[in-house]
Amino acid sequence: MTVPLTFATLLREQVRRVVEAGLDLTLVSSPGPQLDEVARESGARSYGLPMARKVSPLSDAAALRALAGFLRRGRFDIVHSSTPKAGLLTALAGALARTPVRLHTYTGQPWVELRGPMRWAAMNSDRVVAQLDTHLYCDSESQRQFLVSHGIVSSSRIRVLGAGSISGVDTRRFDPDALSHERQRIRQGLGIGRDAVVIVFVGRVTRDKGVQELIGAFTRLAATAGDLHLLLVGPQEPDLDPLPPDTQRDISSHANVHTVGFTDRPERYLAAADLFCLPSYREGFGSVAIEAGAMRLPSVVTRVTGLIDAVVHEQTGLLVPAKDSDALAQALRRLIEDPELRRRMGAASRERAVRSFDAAMVNDLVVAEYRQLLGRA
Known about the structure:
By secondary structure, the protein is α/β, with parallel strands linked by helices. It has 16 helices and twelve strands. Strands 9-8-7-10-11-12 form a six-stranded parallel beta sheet, with helices on both faces.
């Protein structure tokens, strides 16, 4: 992975399951305390390798050289990458080191929102990964179809494990009944009343997550919808994907918009909410929508690749066009004004999360895949 945060959030339980299965696992990402913490608590090894998220020819060349040497010395049977920068470096380094089984999981394409030379370069990076790696996966069926339709990979070479997602959801951790005490505790801490309707967003608070449209829709709704609040749970990335100044101003000035920043316990804030919203421009799958569903929350998300697998329209939530603040406001209003619809969709969301995306089931599929590939190696 490019950054250790991915191990600490999405893959923590999967790492533990792989080690428990008796496989010798080494975690590689940019160095940081989260990398060491996940390795220490799971029994995995770790190797900190500086990787810049932005294109940086000198540091990228140094990272490639270091990674190829590390793979060659370690004589690994399998190397498995995800995220764009780590995927490209690992495909090249794995081929140079002659690691016999090279896996990559696509989890969303940043080039969807790019134009010109940067889009061409990012698309061709994904093509290089597809050509060099021996096995390819993605975390949703719609993303698989998207990659095939854009000529990144042939349909016979890429698979989705189970129903999708990179690691599923821990339905024991994301359990609304076990976390019912957190609802009022979080609300009281933020100055939100017991009877208020609360919308929660969990993710990077950035432009490509649709935060501009969400703030626009919320400010219009809050003017007429009574006691309505919005929780923004996640970090901003001003250097990579800054929000427009007027959106920043609305976030900081609106009394009913509450910014929380990064947390390693998003389930506490989901427990405090009544509905979940993710108006993203692009996703690989949208695992956070499944986590919200496990917390018995209905979702309003955009009709984009990945999210159309995570949310079933009119059953577990509502799908709206991307970059359409008016459509987003209409869908949110429908759920705000209909508590019974929220209850029905929330119950269906929890049932679907347990049935199709429970982390134990998803992680066992990953372990079984590793075992099968080790046998071939």
